[in-house]
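Reopening this ticket.

The earlier resolution said the output was attached, but the attachment link was broken on my side. Pasting everything inline this time so it's all in one place.
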Amino acid sequence: MALRYEECLWLKDLLQEGIVLSHALELLKSDKNKEVIERILESLERGETEFSYFFPKRSQQRMFQFFLNLYPLDEALSHCLVIESTKRDLVKRTVNKLLYPLCILVLSCLCITFVCLLVMPRILSLMEGMGLMIDHFLYYMCIGLCAGIFLGIIFLCLGIGYLYKIYHDKRFKEIFDRISVVWIKRMFQSLFTYIFCTYFNVLLKQQVSTKEALYLLCGIQDGICDEIGNGCMRGLESGKELVVTLEEGGWLLPGYISYLRIGESCGRLVVYSDNYEKMLHEKIEHGIKFALYVMQGFSYGCVGVCAVVIMQMMLSPLELFELL
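Inline output:
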């Protein structure tokens, strides 16, 4: 039970306008959030701040609690919402590009299953009842194709779930270090670099210092950014430069580190980091488009194979021509 994302945005705007928190909460009160706001007001009367009522997820609550130890409530809420809006934007970009091809793939699998389990057996029984000799090879080939597609989808979902789990369990460091294939490691580095520089640029555009932006990344408590941020903070505290700490971590692409080195030398770190984010976004987008085209082509091809097999099964026996 917590405030919705939109309500937190409204609350942040009211607090930045100078309205007292208790009065701002009263302005937000409605029939849907009445109980939550009353509990927040009760906690404020006791001199406490129940961060669990502001965000529903535990990772968000830990991040909010981390920021509350550093900033006043309005600033902590503002930083949390900036990070959450960035995360929502990243998810939205990915989902919007993958949703249509995934729907096509699922519908194709359902069509293949329908053809293999309902249409083809009826055709076979009908033709065998007419005393025709039927080659079952094509039918078994379609069954094998259908089973292969479903197994591939299952393994893909399990793989994505496993990666998601280790990503949030903070066990990806040991797995990342074990990767010996260069192109796989480069693919993960591209993903880590894109996530990190997106959050990093958003925070830098909020007019915070580089060190403060890295410290804020340490409080995300979700994914790779806090791991990189903690490593950078340890390096900066030991007297190393930002670019050196990022290079020693091995998480990010060498190209991004080179851009940061140039930006830091000329005092335009935000500009160079933002330019690299845009360039990397275009590369990732091209890669996703290529994968989506392959996925769509494979889906259409599977449906086409089933249609051709059905026609071949009906036309292959020479005895059919005697019935015309």
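Reporter confirms the inline version is readable. The CA atoms of residues 209 and 255 lie 23 Å apart. Residues 73-129 form the longest helix (57 residues).
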